[in-house]
Structures are given as structure tokens and as C-alpha cells.
Amino acid sequence: MYASREDIGYDFGDDSKVGSKPVKPNPNIDGGWAWMIVLSSFLVHILTMGSQMALGILNMEWLEEFNQSRGLTAWVSSLSMGITLIVGPFIGLFITMCGCRKTAIIGGVLNALGWILSAYASNVHYLFLTFGVMAGIGSGMVYLPAVVMVGQYFQKRRALAQGLSTTGTGFGAFLMTALLKYLCREFGWRNAMFIQGAICLNLCVCGALMRPLSSKDVNEKHIVRSNSEDNQAKALSHSTETIQSNGILSEEPEKKAAATNEEVLDDIKHIEIGGKSRIGKSMYGLRILKTVSQLTVTVRKGFGMWYSSYFGAASLFTNRVFVAFIIWALFAYSSFVIPFIHLPEIVKQYNLSSQNNIFPLTSIIAILHIFGKVILGIISDVPCISTWNVFLIANFTLVTCILTLPLMQIYISLAVVCALIGFSSGYFSLMPVVTEDLVGTKHLANAYGIIICANGISALLGPPFAGWIYDITHKYDFSFYICGSLYMVGILFLFMQPYIGKKQPQEKSTEEAQV
Q1: For burial by CB atoms within 10 Å, which of 216, 232, 253, 400 has the most?
Q2: Which residues of 27-51 are buried (b: 16+ CB within 10 A; e: fewer)?
Q3: Does domain 27-212+298-314 bear CATH number 1.20.1250.20?
Q4: What parts of the sequence cross the membrane (predicted)?
Q5: What is the pTM of this model?
Q6: DSSP states of 39-72 as a string?
Q7: pLDDT at residue 14 tops 50
């Protein structure tokens, strides 16, 4: 169905051996429990990303309560948004060792605890730790599993499923803004954060819904995808098969680790049998030793896979297009966040507050953002349309709007540009799909962790940078121009890489011939 890998510049070999096996598809892939995973991911986006987009309400309360500068206070929300994404690579390690379900449940507890402890804040610096760091890490531990699980459960409708689940961000922006306004007005901001923390405990329920697929189900999914995608299971040096063959997910270390584990457990069982005849109390210690042994093997195996994915001889960074994808992500997110943060000031600067109060421009972006994710997902799932091309076109549209927005000085023109920004930014739902096409399902957690980490750096530094530009020029125009230009460079770099990558196999074969 997907032509995106071919468009990116990969060639695929014959996989007739795999494709010839008749496989009965699992009913939970593209149906059944898969839609519960979409619902879980949708709720996660509401409670994490949606809440963060509504932090402007609490930011005003913090300014009034602590009487600190706007720049210092803004770092609370920036830290929370940035850390949620920056911790992606490390959350990938947790997912490798513990699985998505346990990682999400732990993250839900940590996120709720961050909200609750923030209710007792005595200064802004206290909020840096409790809300910025603790709640941010908790959000990241729930967000990444929510995206990865949707990718695992869907094959034919991946783009649509990701689009539906990520619309929770837009719905959450509306719901959480209204909720926090009501709670702050009725109970004060401290009690509002306490109540919000209790609500965020529902993230643990969302994590519990993330039932993992068995290894057999995952293999069936890969075989069915090989049949339906014209034998696109083998890429060249940057594809999933190359990474596997070089040892990231090779089976030999796993077999060695499993053999070692069995030997240790056999020894423990023999000791345990002898212990029964001797002292009953030693049984408890032996069980602990057995559990620790199993945990140690699991941690070592998970850390080895995680380390190889990033730093091994065949790491993800050997994929040229994926590296270009990371560079693009470093500039992309700030260009989307800046309009949300600084549009109210632009409206005030152009004396458009009365019109904006009737229908806020940020609301236009949020509404069209929801529709954009779903519609772009549906378009990308059409067999004759490349997800990669849809992704690039949406990016070019967004960066054009970012660069032209400061030139619009009347409400109607600003509304049109904001509508295009909202719709084209729906490409965020395609990011996991494009990432999975580049590296494969097994590497999705680690690879997407890097991508959202780059987005987090962009989200963390973008708003303060725009504020710094405003302090110098007393206009937000230059922040749009500079961020938009950097974003354009990232898009062009991403656009050109596939054509450069096509030459690599010939160069490689020439080098091998010389050797």
C-alpha cells in the first residue's frame, strides 16, 4: 500500500520466501482491540499534550502569585513541554525493557504526582522541579507508548489511526482550557492543579489498555505487510533488514542471553529443591534471587538493544534520510508553537482584539489542526498516494504560512493564514508513520523517541528565542522570519536527502569491488 520507502530512495529485493507463506491475519490488527488502543492514545493526548497547550491559564495565575518576570515564569511551561519530548530516547529504553503498558502506568503516576506537588509550590523554582521536570517526564513516559502502540496494532490504516488518536491534542486544548478556567475561578489555581492531578491518574487506566501483541502477532503483521506492499521488506543499507543483520535485533545475543538465563534458573531450582528439605526460610531468598536474575537478564538485554540502536555499528544514525529527519525536527516544532504563544500579542499590536475575542485565531488553528490530522491521514492511506509526498507538501504549506503571517495586518487575512497553519500542521499525525516506514516497527520506539526529542529541543528553545528577539526589536516579525527560514532549510535538507541516498549503493558496491 505504501510507496513512501520507494519515494524516499530505497530499493527493495525479492522476499518471495516470506510472502509465499499463507498467514491468517490477527483480528486485533486493524480491528478489534486495535480501536481500544486508538481510544487509549486519544485520551493520553487529551490529558498530556492538551493540558500543556492550556497552560496559558496557569501561567497568568503564576505571574500574579509569584510576581516574577514573564521570561522566568514562561520557563515552567516550556520545561514541561520540552522535557515531555526530550526524554523520548530514554523512554525508548524503558519500553524496550518493560514494555509500553508498564511504562505508561508508571508515567501516569509520575505525571499526576507532579501536578499534585505543584499545588504546594512556594516559588517558580519549585515549579521547575515538580511541574517542569516531574510532570514533564511523566507525560513523556505515557506519550511515547501511546504512539508506539498504535503503530504496532495497525497495518493498512496506520495514518488514519494515528490521525484519530492525535486529534486528542486539539480536543484537549479546548477541554482543558475550559476546565482549568473553571477550576481556577471556583477553587483557585492550587486546588485546580490538585484536581487536575487526580484527573491525570486516568493515564494509568489508559496505560492498562495497552495490551501488548505477542511476538507471533508481530511476525504475522510483518509477513502480511510484505505481501501487501509489493515485497517491500528489504531496504538497502539504511533499511530495517540491514540494521537487523548488523546486530541491533539479531537473535544470537538474545539466544545467548536466554541460555545464560536458563542455566542460572536451573541452578537456582536445584538449590531451591535442596532448600525445601533443609530450611523453609531459604525459599523466600531463593525466590528473590530468581526474580533478580530474571530482571537482570531483561535489563541487560533491553539496554543492549537500546544502546545498539543508537551507538552500535549499525545504529539508526547510519540511515541518511533518518538523520535528515532529525535535523528537520530540530526546527519544525518551534515554528508551530510560536503562533500559539505570540498571536495574542500580534492581535493586540494590530488593534484586532475586538474581532479576535469573537473568534480567536488560536481557536481557528486548533480546530483546523484536528481536521487536518484526520483528513491527511485518510489521504495518506489511499494506495496510490505516497505518505512521504503528503508529508512534504504539508510541510511546505506550513512554512510558507509561517513566513507570510507577519505580513497580514487585517483579521480576515490572519484568519485564512491561521486556518492553513492549522490544517497543514496536521502532518504531525504522519510523523510516526513516516518514521516506521524508515526504520520498521521494531525500531519505532527508539527512532520516534529521537524525533520527539528533537521536537522537544525545538519547543524548549523556540518561545524564549522569540521573546528575546522581541526584546531587541519590539516586534515578533523577525522571530517568525528566522524560525521560518530555519524550518525551510530543514525541509529542503529532508527533501534532497533521498536523491543523494540513491547514489550510495553504487558507491558502496564500487568500494566492495576494490576490496
Answers
A1: 232
A2: ebbbeebbeebbebbbbbbbbbbbb
A3: yes
A4: 33-55, 75-96, 103-121, 127-148, 160-180, 192-210, 310-338, 358-376, 388-405, 411-434, 446-466, 478-496
A5: 0.69
A6: HHHHHHHIIIIIHHHTHHHHHHHHHHHH---HHH
A7: no
